[in-house]
Amino acid sequence: MQHTGATATGPGAPRAIPDATIARLPLYLRALAALAEQGLHTVSSGELADASGVNPAQLRKDLSHLGSYGTRGVGYDVATLRTRIGAQIGSTQQWSVVIVGMGNLGSALASYSGYAARGFRVAALVDASDALIGQQVRLEGNDPDVLTIQGDADLADVVRAAQPAIGIITTPAEAAQGVCDRMVAAGLTSILNFAPTVLQIPEGVVVRAVDLGQELQILAYHQQHAQIPADAVVDTDQATSGNGLPAAAEPATGSREEVLQ
Amino acid sequence: MQHTGATATGPGAPRAIPDATIARLPLYLRALAALAEQGLHTVSSGELADASGVNPAQLRKDLSHLGSYGTRGVGYDVATLRTRIGAQIGSTQQWSVVIVGMGNLGSALASYSGYAARGFRVAALVDASDALIGQQVRLEGNDPDVLTIQGDADLADVVRAAQPAIGIITTPAEAAQGVCDRMVAAGLTSILNFAPTVLQIPEGVVVRAVDLGQELQILAYHQQHAQIPADAVVDTDQATSGNGLPAAAEPATGSREEVLQ
DNA sequence: TCCTGTGAACTGGTTCACAGCA
DNA sequence: TGCTGTGAACCAGTTCACAGGA
């Protein structure tokens, strides 16, 4: 991991939130939104940690990096905490994204309805295929709720015009590096890459990669090495419902694998 | 992160590959496939590390966990290494997956054409909507290249019949926990969750989560805190092309953010 | 009493630097 | 000579455990 020159370790810079913490803030925000929707006004670290899938001590330490917004003996005020985390993460302002590659995945991401709620808007759609260029795409709840797919050749112009904060690459692997280079040249410094390839980028650009195949392979590894020595799966502290399988009905609170990290 | 009772620290168990290493093996495999395609027969740790976006020492240490398959003074044999990593990760056998939730994202994932190449096949598609149940979906290159969407009510039967190794959840957040519970009850122990919610699972089940919103928010954080003090972006060791923007044409080899952890 | 906030211990992971072999 | 393999140093992140405030 490497981020921008942002690690300003200057004398008067309290700006030092660990990367691992930052990756979890969206999780907390999501959990807080759910709690607020339930009408809750206060949460303890234990409750919020549970809802976020982390250890309570972890949660408290993470939040302590943002300042002291809890009340001892009581917990955290849901609304206040949402505001504080939101401010840190930048969800107070709206960020534009441009999506390059309007195949199955690109289209699916374009029509993702959760952008607005999280402070994002799709500003432009780009593809290289003549068959797609010029087509109009309807985006539920997006600011311009209809976007015209623009040509890959115009990518630089599109980026300069739309000034998106983030570029999303959903092209085939072969095209990804070229798209990335041109995004960077046009001034983009944050890229979300769904193409199964490693992007070479200059200093100062942040790339996050999501790869379905990689995720599946990691799960396959665990699957393969989950030796079932007659006690690994069944002999947990979970009740079994007589068919030798864990009961589904129960709350099933348990440990879980960390999210992406 | 938490995986199955697989951490068999028994006396004669050399089975101790760190999780962080496992998460990178698919990356190496991908890079090796690309190198093999280029006709390369041998790679040094430096070259492979470059192609995978990691530090050479990291790569060597990772590979050393699988055994010694390199030749000092020369490097690694591409074919051998592919085989070894493939064997570890389980890509020697084929794994079936079931996808639950055939909205935009589910459909996009279903028609992802990279499954076969990585040793996966889609065994079943499930959705709760009457409008979708019964519809046929064409899957390029999949074993049954046409699948009929099955009803959510039949999920347990579908899982028991298809015996998938991995369940993929692409339902709305509200439905995800229910689907997960029933998957687990039906015997699934590896789940890939795209729904923006934390799944509560019993011991012995491995969940990996991918959340678009979370990724965007992490990037937004970096974007917001990438103070541009007139020297953060431009004043790197990258050449500028006169327009004050980094040149796009150059190789742009540089540091990069780690892939997903 | 019950919770937060945090120093301190610990764990896991990364990088360095070099010994050792082709 | 040029590379791998790996102990040792280092660093980041997690968890513990408790002091201290509402």
Automatic annotation (TrEMBL), chains A, B:
Region (Disordered): 237-261
Any one GO MF annotation of this record: DNA binding
Entry keywords, A to Z: Cytoplasm, DNA-binding, NAD, Repressor, Transcription, Transcription regulation
Database matches in Pfam families: CoA_binding, Put_DNA-bind_N
Domain of life: Bacteria
Positions with a binding annotation for NAD(+): G101, M102, G103, N104, L105, G106
GO cellular component: cytoplasm
Subcellular location, record wording: Cytoplasm
Stretches assigned to the CoA-binding domain: 90-198
Annotated InterPro entries: CoA-bd (IPR003781), NAD(P)-bd_dom_sf (IPR036291), Rex_actinobacterial-type (IPR058236), Rex_DNA-bd_C_dom (IPR009718), Tscrpt_rep_Rex (IPR022876), WH-like_DNA-bd_sf (IPR036388), WH_DNA-bd_sf (IPR036390)
GO terms under biological process: negative regulation of DNA-templated transcription; response to redox state
SUPFAM superfamilies referenced in this protein's UniProt entry, alphabetically: NAD(P)-binding Rossmann-fold domains, Winged helix' DNA-binding domain
DNA-binding region as annotated in the record: 27-66
Quaternary data: Homodimer.
Annotated family: Belongs to the transcriptional regulatory Rex family.
Function: Modulates transcription in response to changes in cellular NADH/NAD(+) redox state.
Cross-referenced NCBIfam families: PRK05472.2-1, PRK05472.2-2, PRK05472.2-3, PRK05472.2-4, PRK05472.2-5
Record protein name field: Redox-sensing transcriptional repressor Rex
Origin organism lineage: Bacteria, Bacillati, Actinomycetota, Actinomycetes, Propionibacteriales
